[in-house]
User: Fold these one by one.
Assistant:
Number 1:
Amino acid sequence: INPNNLKLTISAASAKQYPDTDIPEIALAGRSNVGKSSFINTLLNRKNFARTSSSPGKTQLLNFYNVDSKVHLVDVPGYGYARVSKKEREKFGKMIEEYLTTAPNLKAVLALVDLRHEPSEDDKLMYTFLKFYDIPVILVATKADKIPRGKWNKHVSVIKKALQFDSTDDFVIFSSFDKTGIDEAWTAIEQYV
Ligand code: GDP
């Protein structure tokens, strides 16, 4: 997969706009501010392709990034904004749910959590949801540069335990700041495309 051969296929507001292709899709999910945009930009070797932290209240879209016509990385809006109204959150949850449960080309989800912290309730909900629907997960623990290497294993254990991590899923330790985990992330993605 050549990450430089890149285009935004569509920013979809609803299911009828999802692209009608058979290119495999890998979605990205994570709490707002987890480092999802930075992850996409790092993976795709771009500075500002995925825009960082779309603010609450803005239209929530699913962005389909076509990478080398081999995979669509599907950027799902970040969850867990405290300041968003309950109604908005529900609408947004429905959009994600609709996509994750009906997308015919969805192969796996890159689920992002912060390596520093215990997963949030929303993180746990997302992982449980994905496992309920038998969707393979590539768990990506972000911001690894903030934790000394000697403590990585401990943090990984805490995260796995909190999520009741399925041992058949992949786990990638990642940092956009020092470029840790890019190859591991691509290797994990490539097994599904
Ligand atoms: P998003 O809301 O999930 O798209 O998160 P962003 O990519 O916008 O990042 C949120 C914040 O975390 C920003 O201040 C980033 O600079 C910071 N951040 C993102 N990735 C990393 C990382 O790998 N290491 C560190 N230390 N900070 C990061």
Number 2:
Amino acid sequence: MSEPILEIRDLKKSFNALKATDGVSLDLQPGQIHALIGPNGAGKSTLIHQIAGSLKADSGTIRFLGQDIGSLDMAARARLGLARSFQISSLAQEFSALRNVMLAVQAKAGSSFRFFRQVTSDRRLIDPAMAMLERVGLAHRAHVPAAELSHGERRQLEIAIALALQPKAFLFDEPMAGMGPEGSKQLTTFLDGLRHEAPMLLVEHDMDAVFALADRISVLVYGRIIATGTVDEIRRDPEVRRAYLGE
Ligand code: ADP
Ligand code: MG
């Protein structure tokens, strides 16, 4: 197996007496979708927060692209190419979808785009931003304010923003939540294609999506991973069936 993009070892986080993550280890391999499943309160979001840097781990290590990122803040981790989407909405509500993506393109370009007199008409921002919106299927809504987009469209926009940052890995926390069957199907197809651009750690309750997408699945229960394996291995695992799949 190749060097993992993301290497998590023995991560722990307690909230008072509650061990939300209790020694979690996992590897995210290049080109792969690694799904993280488990019941409500298992610690999935806590784990995502710890990896993204919005929550500091009590102990354990996180290596990203070979570098220990445990002491970096969330912005520094994002600059290294760790993109998180969902459950934190960073949309500028009054701005159009296009403008939101342009801000991300600008942020990525950093100091080389230091001064904009006419940000809103700069082709160096508009063209790549529009291309991102096309990729996520939102180009026809480019000029609609973020606040007026539907739930599903906002998720598409958040992905476009994440893409604009040209990430090396994605962290997705329940991207299908609140989406109808058609939206979930579209997003599944989209994520499927995305794995070769950047691997992803995907927390998701929608088992159809998980089974369709995952190269590997880890099952988290009460802060501990009780099983990791391929879709087939996880579906066959008696402990998983008992603890999570409810069979
Ligand atoms: P999941 O995403 O798997 O549903 P969470 O990571 O959100 O689970 O939560 C794991 C456990 O930690 C839950 O029991 C939850 O109530 C608790 N928890 C999460 N965040 C906090 C917090 N900021 N303060 C106290 N308890 C928390
Ligand atoms: Mg959660």
Number 3:
Amino acid sequence: MALPSHKPPHIGSEPFSTESYFQTQRPPPGLEDKSATMLGFVNKWKDVQGKKVVLVTSGGTTVPLESNTVRFLDNFSAGTRGATSAEYFLSQGYAVIFLHRLHSLRPFSRHYSHSLNPFLDLLSIVQPSSQEAGSSSSSSSSSPSIVVPREHARTLLPILQAYHKAQEEGTLLSVDYQTVNDYLWLLRAVTASMASLGRRGMYYLAAAVSDFFLPEDKVAEHKIQSSKGTLSLEMDQVPKVLRPLVQEWTPEGYIVSFKLETDPELLIPKARAALSRYGHQLVIGNELHRRKYEVVFVERTSSSSSDQVPSKGTGDDRLKGTETPPILPEEGVHNGDGLGAAGVALKEGYKETWLRLDDIKNGAQEAGKHVGGKGRDGEVEIEELIIEELVKRHQAWIDAGQETE
Ligand code: PMT
């Protein structure tokens, strides 16, 4: 990949546009190889009739403070949402490109993460019986063996089976990134490959992408010395790549972005603002502390032909470059209270659907039923519900495309 050859058109205090970003920031090492691998994966599945392919982005991006990097800014994301969702997409028959932060959680192995459930704790050592040890000359039968006790094997078996299935079928491709720069270049490359899938491609953008970065010309080459006293940083804004992704890179793709807030009051206005600004199909809102138990789907209804087929809008140019939520019709914040597990609220132009684990569990309890899921130990995970809903919407998007052909 050639290095940027001309000077930045953004010099000074102008914020970076997506275009000026890619003209001025160097592509990461390994981009060509990773892009070729992703293209090969897409082409393989493109030829399989009806096969749907999803890009899952996962984990946080880093912002290095030095080019010989000792220190960097990071965020909280462990990649749970992305790794878990990838498993459910696979179980729904998708081919999955899992674009993830290096060393963040991965599909299948996430169940045995070193901090929560170290895999060494699963294993037991069985010493050979004195008979075996005495009678055999071969060292293998006299050595201790390692076994997975039955109570762990029961849980491990379905995970291992699903993992082997994905490996044998070649339906999971994992590609890693570390910095926000790696992420942006890889996202653009994979989207360029997936665009050829048309409506069969889904983009599930769960990564927590840094909003600020240090452009190359502002990054210190060597370790910043603490002897120089306090450290002041002025960071530039990362361009929001959702706009070109939706409108130029993959106009036919089914695009799902996430919105994370810590103030629940902001969740729906911000999700609506994102839909309005970028013109894609769906925003999944989640509040930091409740993200494992409830999420809200926010979609437009105004120009859609049916409840299940969100239309792709054009994006609202008046909102370019602003993070302020627009004054939307019926802007009142709606938290979906009392709407049930998949409570639906219709407001002018927007539809909100809440998915809540608690409601499902309470509903099942009231009905005297046990509610089981596909998670470890048979529990329900919110991602199982999210993916079930998304598969329906994605299929409706594909069908609507065929009707208009
Ligand atoms: O990994 P976990 O611990 O399970 O946490 C999961 C999660 C909370 C990180 C995830 O569910 C989530 O909400 N991810 C999105 C976080 C967020 O709010 O991102 P954002 O507001 O910066 O961006 C919104 C969307 O725009 C995202 O889909 C992002 O991929 C996209 N984006 C962001 C920055 C940028 N420069 N360009 C983008 O396209």
Number 4:
Amino acid sequence: MTTFSELGLAPEILRAVTEQGYTTPTPIQLQAIPAVLTGEDLLAGAQTGTGKTAGFTLPLLQRLHTMPSNATAQRRPIRALILTPTRELAAQVEESVRVYGKYLPLNSGVIFGGVGINPQIKLLKTGVDILVATPGRLLDHIGQGTIDLSQVKVLVLDEADRMLDMGFIRDIRKILELLPKKRQNLLFSATFSNEIKELADKLLNSPNMIEVARRNSTVEVISQKIHPVNRDGKHTLLAHLIHTLKWSQVLVFTRTKHGANKLVEQLEKADITSMAIHGNKSQSARTKALAEFKEGSLQVLVATDIAARGIDIDQLPHVVNYDLPNVPEDYVHRIGRTGRAGAGGEAVSLVCVDELKLLADIEKFIKRKIVSEVVPGFEPDLNAKPQPIQLRSQPGQRSGQRAPAKPASSSARRPAAAGPNHPRPHAGAAPNTAARRSSSGSRGRG
Ligand code: AMP
């Protein structure tokens, strides 16, 4: 069995890895570490939970450690740029860089939107070797002339598929134009759509290609189950499951931000501590909810798909799809939150009559039938007629607030901009790219 020390990493990195308790490299690490160390471009297919972050971070640190640095520079130039789709993922990747690089004389920083820009300007003035950023805020810095990317030697696009889903392609193109031509490019993606292939073709130069976990496959160690239930019985069923099965740490996905807020209220009434995390929550509220959930003081974290990207919790035991996602790929992303790095996990979906088409799409996508189990006392009404699914929070259901008692104000009545935190249209509907990039678009997220 290959060990980390056989992969050509410096003793300082090995020490940090050992401290993390990692004994053997994961399959993606076994392939990615030597590939990145060659200095060549890389196209890697890896889902979250496979250990991909260390897969690019460890060899990246090794490369920067051994690469001659510009000793005459007044401040440390940015030599590695890591782009991520969400703030949470950016923060977590930078945390990994810090942890794995703690014994090396390299420093790192993270920049994302939703927080003040001035501390970031200060950070950039001081100089960092490795910068983790979301595209929107990075472009803000570029616009203000507060960042110099002329010395970047390595570019990483992490979760590239999600960045494209979120409408970041133009931002990415703009950023690419500002980078030196001669550099190493690493592209990590869970899925390979035509859009990703197109980006890879433009970006990568004769890349090494690696892939772990079958494309579009569901992480094998996760046990999956559906509970058919009536539309309005879902919250009592969820509370019942949490109470009777004594679930202590559950990540619950809802389709809309409003749905997330409403569920939190319903769970609180059932004496279950929960918090919602979504794009309309302030960055500090999101960070707090995530921290409390990770340390175990918060029993239930309710999240929308985009907000949940980048949530990194070891061995998360339970993931619940309170609503099925509109896009089958998101089902795989969601349940990938459990059973991380080989640990088993359980993914439960509460499915009502409106969602049978979505369920069929998911089963087709993962190429298997999901076990269905009716929970006694929660038998669905077999004569119920399906209703159209509400794809996003409606006017008057402003997230983070209760629906106003009085008629909605004009601003609340405006149709919600389909920002990246809103679910994408169901397959078949034409995606409104322009709307996706409107006011609450990439900048707001980045
Ligand atoms: P990632 O896919 O990068 O989000 O990583 C998933 C989880 O696996 C993270 O919580 C890491 O701390 C953990 N991890 C990464 N590499 C290893 C390893 N070689 N052995 C055990 N756990 C690991």
